[in-house]
Design a protein that fits this description.
Largest sheet: 6 strands, parallel
Number of helices: 20
Radius of gyration: 26 Å
Oligomer: single chain
Strand content: 5-15%
Bound molecules: ligand ME8
Number of strands: 15
Length: 517
């Protein structure tokens, strides 16, 4: 039976339209999911929307509508966007769905049975954007504003149920210490460990003042605090807690990995493991936290005019292609570092695709077309320059595997581009167009064409997870259909002498160069 792999994005708040940040996480997760499918693994990819909580109610009020209407307006925008962006998610979970409510109710019932929930009262500063209480010291340090959104903190006081987070804090800490790969990139681990060292409080998990949420099974006057509701999605979507016979996906795919933005790392590496310990279920395998996007050097903001919204993203896709957007996002910074959208960088990254990959493919196709009627010639004895490129090409897939396995996504997408760059250099250095003028060099010409063609073939195979359309189109131009083969299978079958190449056309056609990205 094939190995299984399960990856999720955060479930996004549909209080507004999705933007660059949501698109980035979803595209990263999509590339990783595609990579695992191309490795032959039985892969499940989940995304969805987090629809309850104070934030939804307040946004709805400010727009003169209800939370229920607001989600019905915005959730379809997320669903349709992922379809338009050809995101390969297998499921989309909504926290207002019956299946999720049933799962959360079962989870909370288990916690109650463990005596992990008790009634108390709470008064404190609350960050409504993050749906989180903030300690007095932190609130003061932050000048009583949200550390994330900058909006004023709100004073909350009411009876509330608590989850016994303190009971599990040591076990969670041990888990993080004993599993250095649990939090990726590893640098982020220390942040979580030092916050844990400073001590945790039990977690307020209910609101009596709120009606928009899932009722607490033991006290319907309260709705469940949004993080318990939200984090549970990763298993309720697989059928957990929805009766025997409905949890086949859960048994098959859990535990999985979570890809998230760094601002919600604490919830995913402390609250969520503690919740799973309470209900006696396995912890996630890994949590990958990526960096935060700014645009043109500043926090994205509508009023500053640098907000990368859907219209902007759609224009980029229209002008440059979906795969050009994917490549830019994944290559923009080492995974985990903060990222900065700039027009200049976008154009540079598009040039990598057009001038390096597209051009290399085009040169190979043109030369094989012109000098060999589009039929791949055999390779003769290799000279040093040939064997160097062959060796580097041969190592590519192994390097790409290890980059994906260790979530070095920038490397995973740039390694193939580097091989294409080397191949262009090889073509320049071996000058096939000169060799073609000398009949005595015919065999040498054949070798150079064969070696260049095998190199660009390998480049395109390794680009499949990140450029699913363009890499497949490039392979088709080489006369190769993927036909459900894995990257390893494709890689293990170099193009045979006598193979008929397809016809070429620019893979990344140029748009008006004056047009901004
Ligand atoms: O936090 N840069 O939802 P959310 C990078 N519902 N990534 C960004 C980003 C930016 N500027 N802005 C958003 C929530 N993101 C909760 C999650 S999960 C059980 C509940 C991405 O709509 C990033 O992945 O605020 C971040 O973690 C997520 O969107 C937050 O989305």
């Amino acid at each position: 039976m094939a190995k299984t792999f399960y990856i999720s994005t955060p479930i996004y708040y549909p209080n507004a339209e999705p933007h660059l940040g949501h698109v980035y996480t979803t595209i990263c997760a999509d590339a990783v999911a595609r990579y695992h499918r191309l490795k032959g693994e039985d892969t499940w990819f989940l995304t969805g929307t987090d629809e309850h909580g104070v934030k939804m109610v307040k946004t709805a009020q400010s727009q003169g509508t209800t939370a229920a209407e607001l989600v019905e307006k915005n959730v379809p925008i997320f669903v349709e966007l992922w379809q338009q962006m050809k995101i390969s998610n297998d499921d989309f979970i909504r926290t207002t769905s019956d299946r999720h409510k049933a799962g959360v109710t079962a989870i909370v019932e288990k916690m109650l049975a463990q005596d992990d929930i008790y009634l108390g009262s709470y008064e404190g500063w609350y960050d409504e954007g993050q749906e989180e209480f903030v300690t007095e010291t932190a609130a003061k340090d932050q000048q009583y504003k949200s550390a994330v959104s900058g909006r004023p903190l709100v004073r909350y006081g009411e009876p509330t149920y608590f989850f016994r987070l303190r009971k599990y804090a040591d076990r969670v800490r041990q888990h993080i210490e004993q599993n250095p790969h649990f939090i990726q990139p590893e640098a982020r681990r220390n942040e979580v460990l030092s916050k844990l060292q400073a001590g945790v409080e039990d977690l307020s998990i209910s609101r009596a003042s709120l009606k928009w949420g899932i009722q607490l099974p033991n006290d319907p006057e309260h709705v469940i605090y949004v993080w318990i509701d939200a984090l549970s999605n990763y298993i309720t979507a697989l059928g957990y807690g929805q009766g025997e016979g409905n949890d086949a996906l859960y048994r098959k795919y859990w535990p999985g990995v979570h890809l998230i933005g760094r601002e919600i790392l604490w919830f995913h590496t402390v609250y969520w493991p503690a919740m799973l310990m309470s209900i006696g279920q396995p912890l996630p395998l890994q949590v990958y936290a990526h960096g935060w996007w700014t645009a043109e050097g500043r926090k994205m903001s509508k009023s500053m005019g640098n907000f990368i919204d859907l219209d902007r993203l759609r224009a980029v896709i229209n002008d440059f292609s979906l795969d050009a957007l994917r490549y830019y996002l994944l290559s923009a910074a080492p995974f985990g570092n903060d990222l900065n959208w700039t027009e200049v960088d976008f154009n540079k990254s598009f040039n990598d695709l057009a001038n390096v990959v597209g051009n290399c493919l085009n040169r190979v196709l043109k030369m094989v077309g012109k000098y060999c009627d589009g039929v791949l010639p055999p390779a003769g004895a290799a000279e040093e320059i040939d064997s160097n490129l062959q060796r580097q090409g041969g190592q590519l897939l192994g390097q790409v595997h290890s980059a994906y396995e260790t979530i070095h996504l920038q490397q995973a997408v740039m390694l193939p581009i580097e091989l294409a760059r080397l191949t262009n250099g090889y073509i320049d250095a071996t000058s096939p167009f000169k060799l073609a003028k000398d009949p005595a060099q015919h065999q040498r010409l054949q070798t150079v064409l064969n070696v260049s063609c095998q190199a660009i073939y390998r480049v395109l195979i390794c680009l499949l997870p990140v450029l699913p359309e363009k890499a497949a189109e490039g392979l088709a131009q080489l006369g190769v259909q993927i036909n459900g083969r894995t990257m390893d299978e494709l890689f293990a079958q170099p193009l045979a002498a006598g193979h008929k190449l397809g016809s070429g056309s620019p893979l990344f056609p140029r748009v008006d160069p004056k047009k901004p990205a």
